[in-house]
Request: fold
Amino acid sequence: MGEKLLRVKKFFTFYVFLPVILDIVIESLNRKSVFSAFSYMIDKPFLFMFNVLIIMLTLSVAMYFKREIFVLTLMSVVWLLFGVINFVILHFRVTPFSAVDFTLISSAISVSGHYLTAFNVMMIFFAIAILVISLICLFKRTPCFQKNTTKKAYMLSTLVILTLAAGIVVMHKSSTSVQALAENYTNISEAYENYGFVYCFANSIIDTGIKKPENYSEESMAQIKDSIKDTGTDEPEVKPDIVMIQLESFFDICDVKGVSFSRDPLPNFHRLQKEYSNGQLTVPTVGAGTVNTEFEVLTGMSQHDFGVSEYPYKTVLKSKTSESICNDLAQIGYSSHAVHNNTATFYGRNKVFSNLGFDSFTSVEYMNNITLNPNGWAKDDVMVDEILKTLDDNKNKSDFTFGITVQSHGKYNDVKTDSKDPVKVYNAPTGKEESYEYYVNEINEVDQMIGKLVYALGKREKPTVLVLYGDHLPSLDLSNEDLEDGSLYETQYIIWNNYGLKEKDQDLKAYELYPEVLDQIGIHTGVITQFHQQADRSSDTYQTDLKALEYDLLYGENYIYDGEVPFTASNLQMGTNPLKIADVYQKDGQYIVRGDNFTPYCRVYFDGKELESQWIDEHHLKLKDVPERSDRKQDKQKNYEPDEIPNSFVVEVQNGDGVKLSYSNNLRWKNTSLGKK
Reply:
């Protein structure tokens, strides 16, 4: 009897009381307040218990193990770590921690230097080391319960787990009638507040991709296809160059209530708003998640139809081609280029842009004359010349250029502006004065870039359309109540042109932007394009038909294109113009590599070995020394890497992490000035 009582006490302590405590701690971190966590528990007991049940289910796995206490501790630590990670992430961005963030680890590491000091990094590694050592010690010291591995114990453990799982399912199903829980929520931040961290995080693990519509079939897609009037690939009377600029963390800061400035921080943007088509743009994210807005703008698809806070760039588009503005414009002879003053591998763009149909991608590794802001991000002034380069490279062809800025990226706290004539901010929220001043002066410089770009495009004889929009609001701890427009999920857009397009002001969703731009130009190619252009956006079927199209194109049978996949991955060229190596020669006792389109990210290889080099300018690299020719001979049957061909020089571009992005041509020793001596 005494032993049974102890078992009951152990069960309630470890599998009932502990999950409750864990959830209270996790919700305190999620809400940044212990008081708010208890208020949530009292005000929403159903939701609180639902979250507790999920934790109980995960902890119950420990009953299968001899070292039950160790496994319990390990699972508890994992949940607490998730809570702490969520707390830290919420400090830097508005959107909370979800399972998809695990796919962004490489991207997070690449930008960590902009947010973390060397001391922060050292403390993180120290904490991880302490945690690992503690777990090892605990493993060695925790007792083994042999009874946990008996047949009877396994059956009892399984019964407990099945009961908990059934309880979770029943509670979830019964709750849907009163909408206590939701699987598809558009505002992830509000969802974590309403439904609890545990449920939302667990849902983000399970809910991925686009769920198959209930009525999905060849017949249903035929009905959607029949509703779209096929306008073919008729070219408009004028085929302008099209430039779209995605402005990082950009919105009209003047919409923040109560805050004022010593002068207009966005004079160019405000002037363009008065003269050209513009409106509010509803975006799928806030504080972070740039590529989800980018995905919507480039594809005309809604990110909210995917799993919870999913990043399609890191899932389906890694291996799947997709309809996009690039592929649609290619049907009428356009070439497409991307320009981004940040690393090419961020969010996997160097791979994804090929599947979206871009012909070239100029990242920061292919730019010269870069200056950095106080946060270490490249300033956006470099974008003007790089964008013009894509437009002027082939003047006989119409171009689509997609620019992605980075200067106004966070963080904003503990950083001082380097502006020589700073815009002063008045009445900023207490404790946020420095953050506001830094952010305002960064977007003021972005606005100056906009002014220079518009001026340069205005001087071009060729008809040109420029689309400007913000990808999301910055992480400034804003709320809906702080904004005149009343929504954290709204930025602004402008459609400028130099050939007299009729002004048309309206509010749009991000996935409606490019079809609307093309419609104003007179371009109607592509199913997604035509669907948005012809659909009644206020109708009940608009969203459901769009979701069906998205599923069909990315996960289904491509019924809309008669079962064929009409899009192929492009042979993406890195840089507007390719790397070229023309000669290696000696001058004044120095070895010089001559060629075209060199940048500070260039590395020189000979015979498979990297040579110590220094960038001089876009046409010259200096070598410390040149090795003697080796005895290796090229085996024509072997597939060499470009930098390993015997007795050949090659220049390659690498990012800061050593990832090889592109190569020049190979130049044999015998064809250089050195070899001809």
Observations:
- The chain has a mean pLDDT of 87.
- Residues 235-573 form a domain with the Alkaline Phosphatase, subunit A fold (CATH 3.40.720.10).
- Residues 248 and 409 are 6 Å apart (CA to CA).
- The radius of gyration is 29 Å.
